[in-house]
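In the current project phase, our protein records have gained a structure token line. A sample record follows, to show the layout:
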Amino acid sequence: MRCVYGNHTGHIPNTHTLAAQLTVIFLALLVASCGGSSGTQVPPAPALGNDATLSSLSISGVNMDPAFSASVTEYTAGVPHGTDNVDVSATVSDGNANWTVNGSSDTNVPLVVGENTISILVTAENNTTTRTYTVVVMRAASDNANLYLLQLADARLVPYFEPSTLDYSAAVEFSTAHTQVEVWTDDANATVTVNGNVVASGSSSDPIALSEGSNTVLVRVTAADGASTQMYTATIIRPSASLFVGKAYIKAPNLSEADYFGSGVALSDGGSTLAVGSTEYWLDNYCGEDVVARSQPIRVYTNDSGDDWAEQPPVLLVSNPISAYDFELSADGARMALVRRGSDYGLFVLNRGSDGQWSEHKLDIDVSPSGDPIGIGDVALSANGDTLAVAVGTFDVNMVVSFVHDSEGIWTQHASIQATDAQLENDFAKVITLSGDGMTLAVGAPDTSVYVFTRDSDNSWVEQARISAAYIDYSEQWSFGQSIALSSDGLTLAISEYYNNLVYMYKRESNDVWVEQQQLGPPRGPLLRNPLALSADGSTLAARQFIYDQIGEGDWVLAAQAHPWTGDPGYFAFDVSLSADGTTLVVGSPGDSTGAIGINGVDPGIDVCNSGAAYLFER
């Protein structure tokens, strides 16, 4: 057998291609079969590629600088802060070459803020020749200048904090001379100053001094990029303790423990007649097991001129000498609507004669066909004393019953008022109030809504609106509508919300739509309830012991705090009443326990538990 190889050498190429490997094996076998010697040569294998270039390179979402060229190996690029990773795509010029990203086959690269170096290593087919392409990606610092949380040490912000809301108000008691601001940034690398002083995220500022009146706190957030900023403003009101001056500290002339005198208070429009009551309507007796809560009669005081208040004959019900929990005075203080609660409930109208004595007239309530009343609650009286409304409960439904007083002096039941969607369980008619002109009735159903009724041209009551706080979760005990107050013309309505200690101010527009004007956050959390009182023109509000003034048609501003100057003010501001012009305020304090008696009496140092008192202030 003749074996001819020509001039080829017997070198066996080092290659990894399948065709070359098969060729080498074939030649080797051929040489062996032909008895080839060391001088016998085989053809050389093709040389391995040494091309380590890329024909394309791209980074997801990135424009590289300069534009890609196979001969250029260094690039830069920038991405916004929100891009926290990129994907690398590349194509080798030689299909037998391979490439890696930062030493890995994973082409997704996470990015940190600042400089990120991405190295694309291309290895040629010969496993010797390499080339590195470098892309430096700059990820921008965050431009997030939002706060995650902003709160005050001694007050709550109104409205509730939201990162996108920049302006807030807050109110503190007069006794709060300093406050601190706690801040949390949404981005950990942002920085904060409070009134120009650096405050670390998650910590509180140094104490900030508060003067009487308005105090502005500026919270500036600077994002990590050093350029983006956000300014939050909190206007903190520290009310004046001298705007309303204490004029009379009123105790019953005879004291007993658990009288709770001051549980109810009422002022005439002119502020010259004052009624103060006490009640047995307390679920707990805090004066000891051996003390039986008793009740003072409703005591009446007048001030014809100057600062001298004098006690007048008290209101004593002939049918039952125990005074009631709820009562209202007419504008002139000469008529009183009074409700006695409990099993011996009753609705009464009392008129004061020229001798100061009160005559009593009991009104019968007809709630057929809903059955007999099982109890009565809140009572309201118009300014002229000719329209009366009372909350009535039956086994089937709660309602409001109205009475009118005609020119002949006769009281007539006028209407039974129910909400179209009110249910017994929603406490419809838990609280009620009448406008001074007697043409608008607001009815609270705490935890759900406040219903507004108006008289139409036929003098019939018509449901005009149902007002609810949109964001309240009514599965919780928010008690929206726990207390309500109307201006004399029925166009301004104040509604308290117990859980968050808020007061919502509403205005009725010309199209009869109620519009929320403002949310007020009186200082200090609620005690047992949040009583409200409005001046006749609706421009002054008493929310417990805190007095707000409306500036024109604009914002409500905390102007003053009625501060007890004597006594032992327990349950201070359990009830409040305001004169028509908003210059006289009476505050009930049924938990007062001093042994003083009468008007501005001297405390003998004897403790009479929860005997109660009323504080009278003038502006």
Notes: The chain has one helix and 45 strands. Confidence is low (pLDDT under 50) at residues 1-20. Residues 18-33 form the longest helix (16 residues). The first strand starts at residue 54 and ends at 59.
